[in-house]
Specification:
By secondary structure, this protein is of the alpha/beta class. Helix content is 27%, strand content 25%. The chain contains 9 helices and 22 strands. It has a 5-stranded parallel β-sheet with strand order 5-2-1-9-19. The protein is globular and about 65 Å long. The chain starts with a strand and ends in an 8-residue tail after the last helix.
Length: 423
């Protein structure tokens, strides 16, 4: 009997539990460990921040679907991974032994790297539903007392899409309230240019997103380092192409949402051979750690080096379909190892993204996500907004039903020639 523990119950962890259970033998045990007893659909957090969604709309209690699937759910925070003894230590002192450990925790949010940053400082976040609910309260206050808005992502950030989404969704909501004319907006980003996205662009993302920002009267500052944040004032250093200081900005605000840089979680930090200096899981092409081959990494928790350096540090995003391809590869490879075979499956890391803009949207397909690519495509239109709403409902249904990839989804992706595994 093999015991497979999945640490984390987010976009990667829950589908991993479902796919692993489908591939596991009758005597194998699959356990998922999470500090929360629910799944929440992170891509909908920008909607929560403007009161277009409530917590109940985007969360799923995990006890029932996990029990139905035959997956053991342990609700407890991870304290430390002990790879030498194949144990996972939990916050209450309990230790769980594993044959295989899949780390799918997502990141630790590095708000502490900038003075005054984060929900405990002077900025809002949409990285977690708890943060988005606080942001919503402040959004309602802003509507009563209009003031300048700053949206964006700080140095070291790797997830830029939600920053653009939040900016456009806020713009849309303010127009509906008929107060957009009273509120200047500035987009502040560590990207070297608008539409870089941590991916050196996708299709014509630079031209398209610059055009949308102009159309929505949103100013921007690229190559930006946030120096510090005070109550109502953000200190930003704009850098040149060599990363040297070019200009200092003091930006007043009444509301701000800035995405942070990520690090690995404390439970794995500084474990030599398992993580890189930022705490992300080191993996090979099979999602497997080279030093500890029974530890696997998927999703935002894994280390991916940028393709090329940027003047201000940026990371590589791990998007939804890319993570799902990691999940499928990892599940098949663990099955192979249990069967005393060498792992062979490799994730394609293809990206299929829907970015909402309130009443319109931008969709892109990048195959693979990291250039050079076989497919490099981006389009915009009102259909993207509708598609994002539909996908939200569809993905939540998959979580509730315990099915990672229904047959018709496999058929559709095959028709579009979008694969999860390399052939």
């Amino acid at each position: 009997m093999a015991h497979i523990i999945i640490l984390g119950a987010g976009l990667g962890g829950v589908p991993m539990a479902y796919e692993m259970k489908d591939l596991a033998g009758p005597d194998d045990q699959v356990t998922i460990v999470s500090d929360k007893d629910y799944y929440h659909f992170v891509p909908s957090n920008p909607w929560v921040a403007v009161d277009w969604r409530k917590r109940s709309d985007i969360t799923v209690p995990l006890a029932a679907p996990m029990a139905k699937k035959g997956v053991e759910l342990v609700v407890n925070a991870a304290k430390r991974v002990h790879p030498e003894t194949n144990e996972l230590e939990l916050a209450d002192g309990t230790k769980l032994s594993y044959d295989h450990l899949v780390i799918a925790t997502g990141p630790k949010l590095a708000f502490d790297e900038i003075e005054g940053f984060g929900p405990e400082g002077f900025t809002n976040s949409v990285c977690h539903i708890d943060h988005a609910e606080v942001a919503c309260e402040e959004w309602q206050a802003l509507a009563e007392k209009p003031a300048p808005i700053i949206v964006g992502a700080v140095q070291g950030a790797s997830c830029f899409g939600p920053a653009y989404e939040t900016a456009f969704i806020m713009d849309s909501d303010l127009r509906k309230r008929k107060i957009r004319d009273q509120i200047p907006m500035t987009f502040v980003t560590s990207e070297p240019y608008i539409g870089h996205l941590g991916l050196d662009g996708v299709g014509d993302s630079k031209t398209m997103l610059e055009s949308e920002l102009r159309k929505h009267h949103i100013d921007w500052i690229c190559n930006a380092k946030v120096d510090r944040i005070e109550d109502g004032l953000m200190h930003v250093i704009e850098c040149d192409e060599q990363g040297e200081e070019k200009k200092r900005h003091e930006l007043p605000f009444g509301y701000t949402m800035m995405l942070p840089a990520f690090t690995g979680i404390d439970a794995v930090r500084d474990i030599e051979g398992l993580v890189n200096p930022r705490g992300f899981i080191v993996i090979d092409k099979h999602q497997r750690n080279p030093k500890y081959p029974n530890i696997w990494g998927i999703g935002v928790a894994v280390a991916i080096a940028p393709k090329k350096p940027t003047p201000v540090p940026t990371g590589v995003p791990k998007t939804g379909f890319m993570i799902e391809s990691m999940v499928t590869a990892t599940a098949h490879n663990i099955r192979s190892v249990i069967d005393n075979k060498e792992p062979e499956s490799e994730a394609t890391w293809n990206a299929v993204c829907l970015a909402d803009m309130g009443d319109s949207g931008i969709a892109f397909v990048a195959m693979p996500q990291i250039p050079p690519r076989n497919v490099n495509w981006m389009k915009s239109g009102k259909w993207v907004h509708l598609a994002k709403v539909g996908f939200e409902k569809y993905f939540m249904h998959k979580i509730r039903s315990g099915v990672s990839e229904p047959i018709f989804e496999k058929f559709l992706m095959k028709m579009l020639n979008i694969d999860k595994l390399k052939k």
